[in-house]
């Protein structure tokens, strides 16, 4: 191929316009929640449950009917019949009627009939009864079902990049798999002078920094980088690697082989085999 000299380069603004005009369409894929960090949501997330899914205690204490405690004080405590205990995670069923209480742990579901929780610090037990040393109001020390997230609520929008907070929200709504955008981006570094980090650095060689810098940048954007390794300044070899990358990726980032030297052929391969060259940068 005949060498080409690039005497006129496009401006940064024009280069941005060219890049933004590229028709690159991400695909949708489903990833396990633990693998979705850093990815971009492919669709809105509408929760199918309340969070929390049931009214629960926010303090250790006793589930009661608030009206049963109104007359209680330190001098004259209200005595309530103790029916049992509900630890966190329990599916024990109790129904509280007038004059009754159930011991309850933080996070445990509120039993039927109860509308408040008395903190354990304001009670004492004896002879299967609990004495309440002060009044509580309806709803006190109870987190209502759906108080964090309500069923049917849109919790995350399409296009949101998933960080630690978003992963936590998805987990709390029971999402095991997440619809995310997949954009495979190939990375090709070229040059006889390049060696991979960790290899012996002989005279005239330099480590390939561009591949790993680009890889990290692509990951940071939420796309899926594919490394094709270092390609020597050989036109046939370069053409084969480029052909493979084109078949596997939506976008390809190449580094090197773009100047006017005898070994710089990447731009010529691209112009001849795939598209006209719209911009050049050295």
From TrEMBL:
GO cellular component, one term: cytoplasm
Key word Transport present: no
Record's keyword annotation contains Zinc-finger: no
GO biological-process terms attached to the record: Mo-molybdopterin cofactor biosynthetic process
Entries under CDD domains matching the protein: MoeA (cd00887)
Source superkingdom: Archaea
Keyword terms: Molybdenum cofactor biosynthesis
Domain MoaB/Mog: 186-282
Matches recorded under InterPro entries: MoaB/Mog-like_dom_sf (IPR036425), MoaB/Mog_dom (IPR001453), MoeA-like (IPR038987), MoeA_linker/N (IPR005110), MoeA_linker/N_sf (IPR036135)
SUPFAM superfamilies referenced in this protein's UniProt entry, alphabetically: MoeA N-terminal region -like, Molybdenum cofactor biosynthesis proteins
Involved pathway(s): Cofactor biosynthesis; molybdopterin biosynthesis
GO molecular function: molybdopterin molybdotransferase activity
Protein name: MoaB/Mog domain-containing protein
Organism: Methanosarcina mazei
């Amino acid at each position: 191929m005949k060498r080409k000299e690039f005497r006129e380069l496009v401006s940064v603004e024009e280069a941005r316009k060219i890049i933004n005009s590229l028709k690159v369409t991400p695909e949708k894929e489903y990833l396990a929640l633990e693998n979705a960090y850093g990815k971009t949501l492919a669709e809105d997330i509408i929760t199918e449950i309340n969070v929390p899914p049931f009214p629960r205690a926010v303090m250790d204490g006793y589930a009661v009917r608030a009206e049963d405690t109104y007359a209680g004080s330190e001098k004259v405590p209200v005595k309530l019949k103790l029916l049992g205990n509900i630890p966190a995670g329990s599916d024990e069923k109790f129904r509280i009627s007038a004059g009754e209480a159930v011991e309850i742990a933080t996070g445990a579901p509120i039993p039927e009939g109860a509308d408040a929780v008395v903190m354990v610090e304001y009670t004492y037990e004896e002879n299967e009864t609990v004495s309440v040393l002060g009044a509580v109001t309806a709803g006190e020390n109870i987190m209502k079902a759906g108080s964090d997230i309500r069923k049917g609520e849109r919790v995350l929008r399409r296009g949101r990049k998933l960080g630690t907070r978003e992963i936590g929200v998805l987990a709390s709504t029971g999402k095991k798999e997440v619809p995310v955008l997949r954009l495979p981006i190939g990375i090709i570094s070229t040059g006889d002078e390049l060696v991979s980090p960790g290899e012996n650095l002989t005279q005239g060689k330099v480590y390939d920094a561009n591949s790993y810098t680009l890889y990290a940048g692509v990951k940071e954007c939420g796309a899926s980088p594919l490394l094709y390794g270092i390609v020597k300044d050989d036109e046939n070899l370069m053409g084969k690697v480029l052909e493979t990358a084109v078949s596997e990726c939506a976008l390809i980032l190449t580094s090197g082989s773009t100047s006017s030297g005898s070994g710089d052929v990447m731009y010529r391969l691209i112009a001849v085999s795939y598209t006209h060259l719209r911009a050049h940068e050295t």
